[in-house]
Amino acid sequence: MIADLAASFGTILMPHPLALIVLGTVLGVIVGAIPGLNGGMLVALSLPLTFGWDPLNAICLLVGEYVGSIAGGLVSATLLNIPGSPSNLMTTLDAMPMAKRGQATRALQLGVVASFIGGMVSWVALVTLSPPLAAFALRFGAHEYFALVFAAMALIALLSNGSMVRGLIAGVLGILAALPGLDPVTAQTRLTFGFDSMLGGFDLLAVLIGVFAVSQLVADAAPPKAVEIVRIRSGGLAVGLRDFVRSWFNLLRSSVIGTWVGILPGVGGSVGSIMAYAAARGMSRNPSEFGKGSEEGVLASEAANNATIGGAIIPMITMGIPGSIIDVILIAALTIHNIRPGPLLFDTNPEIVYGFMSTLLVANVVMLVFMLGALRFLARLMDVPKTYLVPVLLIFCLIGTYAVNNRLFDVWTMLAFGLIGLGFRGLRLPIAPFVIGFILTPLGEFNMRSALISSEGNWLDFFTRPIAGVFMVMGLALLAAPAVSALVKRRRARLAGTTPAPDG
Amino acid sequence: MIGTRAIAATAALGGIGLGIVVFRAGAAVPPSFLDSGFGSGLLPQCVGGALVVLSALWLLESVRGASVPVTFAAREVFRPVVLTALFAALLVNLELHLLPFYPTAAAFVFLSAVLLGARSRRGLLLAGLAALGSTLLVWVVFTQIFLVILE
User: What are the helix (H) ranges across B65-100?
Assistant: First the structure.
């Protein structure tokens, strides 16, 4: 494995792949720093460009964009009090107060180095955990894959922001969006309503660009709210090694939390940074400082959110289950290049597996160097007017989507799902269950029906096979958890003679 | 301010309607000898049924006020609605081959920039440059490099 990893480094450190990593990371940081634009949009828009590329080069660009966009969100979180991505939400609580008292540069540099450390810890996890996890996943058959998808979707719905009902609705709508077209087992047409264009279903790229890019761009057209921009007064290094050595435990703990949260399907950076922030505040000697400019808060949040990247890649390459919503787009990228992520990837395309590992490390280094060197430039990005960006990016969305199959139907699909994504934002429906439901449904349905064919229609096999049984019980428990929790609360309140507070 | 719970309730009712449509569409799929306990139409029926039930629960949440309210002012939706209409008009033009694509794309970028606030002389100039520059870039990249022809 070490030899393969070393060989991979040798490949991606060649001029062309290295240039793509640098380009992707820099673009990701820039896009992540501009409020109203996000990494998902950038990665989705970059997909059509990579069609004719070598898959490894595509990974170099897309992973670079992924790493850069999560880290870049720190800039707007610090200077505008607007998180560049949901992962940077907790950073705003302390970075902005630090900036207001004249420590903007210090806050940014602390965040950048913490992001790097989080990224490196999750890289170690990616390298050490992926091979044994892939070996374990090789024991999966159709029953196990369906049970895993079922548990993953139950978890995503449970952990979505807002009520579980809305999370489940989003997941069910995602499943629904994946159904039209030809049945994967019998090739019967369903839900096409007589339209020939629907025989192939909704194109994956059109849906992703619509949901991630078009919905965001149309939402950005609304009049901007007045925001205060804090300016960076001084350049130069405002942090030292001592600042990180004395916070080593906070950094390590936050990185580990972020990595483990990243492994959970569909959960992503925001939950990781929230949990790490809460842990840091709980174990801090100065908890009252949190929310008022605590450096520990900035370190915890930024280490965790970048740590989720490596963690999220683990289930993607070992089991084909996306660890975050940007991983959904990475799966789409592999699919477009006829590469199926999963345990067999280690045998069929090891260069892709080690390509992810080596690219992640190099992208983290590029992110650190670029952000530390270009903080003043990044601060200027806060002034970029969206007036000209939004329409230009919409044209790029149109062209990129059309270029996939040369079909206008795909462009209409993109617009429709863009409006659906917009509707989700307005109605506070979470996006993650929707996109993950969309991408996991073909895998789940195919495996479920294959399993039933092999077991001659016996549903009990999903529970009697050990691994499948564990996942099925886990999924059912996750679905039942909120109802059970509410019942227990009501019972306790009745015993105590009080009225329980409503959930959600 | 535009509706709050009313919008969420309307969406929930829409979900119920959609669920019924999907359920019936799934029921219309004929059985196959390969079905083995789960036919082609059964998943759409399950999804449709789940959507009806979940939407009904969401409707209850909205009516009882337990949902997070949807709140936005009419002026906040004006620009997104008009931008969407302009974009849809561009697509209709492409579908019906009314006018050449690249000039209409440039016009879309210019009009959208004006809609989003480019109304001063400098703004109009920048909008025009953005329209011409982006359209030229797209023309070069997609027709000369990727050989994608839209018309």
Answer: 74-96
